[in-house]
Design a protein that fits this description.
single chain; alpha+beta; Spore Coat Polysaccharide Biosynthesis Protein SpsA, Chain A; Trefoil (Acidic Fibroblast Growth Factor, subunit A); elongated; binds uridine-diphosphate-N-acetylgalactosamine; binds manganese (II) ion; metal ion binding; Ricin_B-like_lectins; Polypeptide N-acetylgalactosaminyltransferase
Length: 493
């Protein structure tokens, strides 16, 4: 049936919140706010430049949406937005893969809508194996993956398909707009972002440099090459997806597959791009609403290790230095994934770093030490989220990199990303250590590793945590106390 004839009210009403029920409980977003919206609500056109296409030369796509216990209202809006925002001739089918949700009817009922097909797993498989199942069932030449809580915007599909028609090795994502998890407001995202990561291998958005933004402003429709994709929303030629080894079927539930496919596509000769004329909104949330068989930390680490072990060559050691606890999580057999790498004659990770992600600081080139800076058994230096001009303190070591990831280089600087430890009030007792822009000529940023002390160069002051509670890490006259003993996870001390 056409989607307009679908019983939207009955479908959503059947799983409405019960009186007094916590709106966030089931989905970790405000279900009530979502249930109250129409399935074809209008959203702002967030594109900042317009383009036209010759639809007749574009390939059709199968849209694949996997879900586990998704709210009915967001799932329906995902489907309806695909049907209303795409040229009908380009949508071959919409394949919903129900990853063993509690209620099979969530999907079965949607199968009545035009073009919608539903496949149901008879046990929980996780998003990777579910997407493969959808891809294998697809009949169109291009696969388009979406999360189950998105809204496609005007002309989102044409520019994605056009890019793939030009180059079958291009793997393309839209700009991902933000659907607010509290009130479901649709907000345009910045067009100046691309995907990246630190050595903890957790996805993050990187802001383009000023120079690059200037260069782009004269031609904003050019695809943005991205070192990593967020993972949920992208289109890819189906035969290329198969040729490059689909996904790693030994990964479970969630996480790591976006890192793996990003390394794989780039290293095996393809490209990852964000297409700025394509916009799709996504409900970003802070917690997983579903269970994680095996434990979320373990599963995520195992998946990430599989990606690192197959694709990163010796550079994986920086990951293990940033996340030492990862070594304890077994990652299983990776022989068939290594075979894919050999078969496609994929390039080494050093090539990826030099050509795709030169912005990622490689500690090896310049670092003497790297990782977290530990004191005693369990305390680590932590930026506590502070940025430029902020101080640093101590926090329980979490071995997950991030705010506890530092490197010491040959210039004797202790760096966190672009910032350097600086004796903020000069070379004197009690001078607070601050995060400031790195400058090789600044002698207040040079530290010597002397046994386990970190001594301000040519001074008698050492990094000391004894006043950590009041002012953070400070300089104090070097002595043998425990509060001046530091150890990097990797390197000299
Ligand atoms: C992001 C990606 C997501 C995926 C993930 C890393 C975006 C917008 N989202 O997380 O697609 O790449 O990073 O793995 O880029 N699901 C299942 N079975 C499961 C668990 C999840 O089918 O066992 C579904 C889930 O219903 C959803 C999709 O997989 O449709 C992604 O899960 P998410 O929305 O919780 O992940 P997200 O957006 O935090
Ligand atoms: Mn999602």
């Amino acid at each position: 049936i056409p989607w307009r004839d679908f019983d939207e009210v009955g479908y959503i009403g059947a799983t409405a919140l019960r009186h007094g029920e916590d709106k966030y409980k089931r989905n970790k977003f405000n279900q009530q706010a979502s249930d109250h919206l129409k399935c074809d609500r209008s959203i702002p056109d967030t594109r900042n430049s317009l383009q036209t296409w010759d639809v007749s030369r574009l390939p059709a796509t199968s849209v694949i949406v996997t879900y586990h216990n998704e709210a009915r209202s967001t799932l329906l809006r995902t489907v309806v937005s695909v049907l209303t925002k795409s040229p009908p001739s380009l949508i071959q089918d919409i394949i919903l893969v129900d990853d063993f949700s509690d209620n099979a009817e969530d999907g079965q009922l949607l199968a009545k809508i035009e073009k919608v097909r539903v496949l149901r797993n008879n046990q929980r498989e996780g998003l990777m194996r579910s997407r493969i199942k959808g891809a294998d069932a697809a009949t169109a030449p291009v696969l388009t993956f979406l999360d189950s809580h998105v809204e496609c915007n005007k002309h989102w599909l044409e520019p994605l398909l056009e890019r793939i028609a030009d180059d079958r090795t291009a793997v393309v994502s839209p700009i991902i707009d933000v659907i607010n998890m509290d009130n479901f407001e649709y907000v345009g995202a910045s067009a100046d972002l691309r995907g990246g990561f630190d050595w903890n291998l957790v996805f993050k958005w990187d802001y383009m440099t000023a120079e690059e933004r200037r260069r782009r402003s004269s031609n904003p429709i050019v695809p943005i090459a991205t070192p990593m994709i967020a993972g949920g929303l992208f289109s890819m030629d189906k035969s290329y997806f198969n040729q490059l080894g689909k996904y790693d079927t030994a990964m479970d539930v969630w996480g790591g597959e976006n890192l793996e496919i990003s390394f794989r596509v780039w290293q095996c000769g393809g490209r990852l791009e964000i297409i700025p004329c394509s916009r799709v909104g996504h409900v970003f949330r802070k917690q997983h609403p579903y269970t994680f068989p095996g434990g979320s930390g373990n599963v995520f680490t195992r998946n990430t290790r599989r990606a690192a072990e197959v694709w990163m060559d010796d550079y994986k050691e920086y990951y293990y230095a940033a996340v030492p606890s990862a070594r304890m999580v077994p990652f299983g057999d990776i022989e068939d994934r290594l075979e894919i790498r050999r078969r496609n004659q994929c390039k080494p990770f050093s090539w990826y770093l030099e050509n795709v992600y030169p912005e990622l600081r490689v500690p090896g080139k310049e670092a003497v030490s790297f990782g977290s800076i530990k004191q005693g058994n369990g305390q680590c230096i932590d930026t506590l989220g502070h940025v430029l001009n902020g101080n640093v303190g101590l926090y329980e070591c979490h071995d997950a990199g991030g705010n506890q990831e530092f490197s010491m280089n040959k210039e004797m600087q202790i760096r966190h990303q672009e910032l350097c430890f600086t004796a903020g009030e000069g070379s004197r007792e009690g001078s607070v250590v601050k995060l400031m822009h790195c400058d090789v000529n600044n002698i207040l940023q040079k530290f010597e590793q002397n046994k386990s002390q970190l001594r301000l160069f040519k001074s008698m002051y050492c990094l000391d945590s004894s006043h950590e509670q009041e002012t953070g890490i400070v300089l104090s006259k070097c002595n043998h106390s425990r509060t001046q003993q530091w150890r990097f996870t990797m390197g000299e001390s």
